[in-house]
Amino acid sequence: MKPAPFDYVRARDMTEALDALAQHGSDARIIAGGQSLLPMLNMRLAKPAVLIDIMGIAGLDQVRREGELIVVPAGMRQAALLRRPGLASEQPLLAAALPWLGHYQTRARGTVCGSTAHADPSAEIPLCLVALDGEIRLRSRKKQRRLKASAFFAGMMVTEKADDELIEAVAFSAARPGTGYAFNEVARRHGDFAIVGCAAVVEAGQIHLAVAGVADKPERRSWPRLDGSALDDALNAFAWELDAREDLHATARLRRDLVRNLGRQTIEEALRCLA
């Protein structure tokens, strides 16, 4: 199929992009990498009247550190973030998750903020943002605001971004001393969206586990340092709380089993990183 007709604006700066968003509102969509949006256009699942291309705006492709945060702006390609020198020590969870994100060709074009905006419940970037208690930085012509990832993702491909806002950047917490990180996922093929993805962050007295692919958005739970049957019970309760969906890729029962078993495996790997 071919997309429905649309107008195209190649923004020269952020002001032009925000002005176009303010003018067209819900009839406009931001395009950067286009790896999620273009298939939706071709299948006519999305029919914007205007596409606003932000990839010509200078300065949107440079990761920066702000204290303990890794700030990734709207033009940063997924492959470029994966190639960032020292990423494995700067934030091991991101370094472990990014190779699972799509395929080499899609990572070369897709952007980190684009995946965030798309908000697929099985996607790796939203999962990492939730696991690391990250934030989404939104901007419109009138204001700027920041939302925690847990508040930003509202449902399946639904977010709290307003029609006149774009995601200017996302911020991940950098690795902290005495903290272990691990990531695992199960998919039909490497590079496909996860049937279940798990991201664990373990600190001295607490375990955090985030799960994607089960509910209609990534979810995180925190517990004290449990082990044995106590951890099994906590994971079982989490698996049932997620109200697992069933589709052609997996049954709800399989997804619950993966939360229990893949979740434990991921937590154990994060614990080993503390040793």
Describe the structure.
- This protein has 3 domains: 7-52, 2-Layer Sandwich (Uridine Diphospho-n-acetylenolpyruvylglucosamine Reductase, domain 2), CATH 3.30.43; 64-173, 2-Layer Sandwich (Uridine Diphospho-n-acetylenolpyruvylglucosamine Reductase, domain 3), CATH 3.30.465.10; 181-272, CO dehydrogenase flavoprotein, C-terminal domain (Enolase-like, domain 1, 2-Layer Sandwich), CATH 3.30.390.
- 43% of the residues are buried.
- The termini are far apart.
- Helix content is 33%, strand content 25%.
- β4 (64-66) and β5 form a beta hairpin.
- The strands form 4 sheets. The protein has a 5-stranded antiparallel sheet.
- The chain has helices at residues 14-24, 37-42, 78-82, 87-90, 92-97, 104-109, 112-118, 124-131, 149-152, 228-241, 252-272; strands at residues 7-10, 28-31, 50-53, 64-66, 69-73, 135-139, 144-148, 153-155, 158-159, 166-173, 180-186, 196-202, 206-212, 219-224.
- It has 275 residues and is an alpha+beta fold.
- It is globular and about 60 Å long.
- α10 packs across α11.
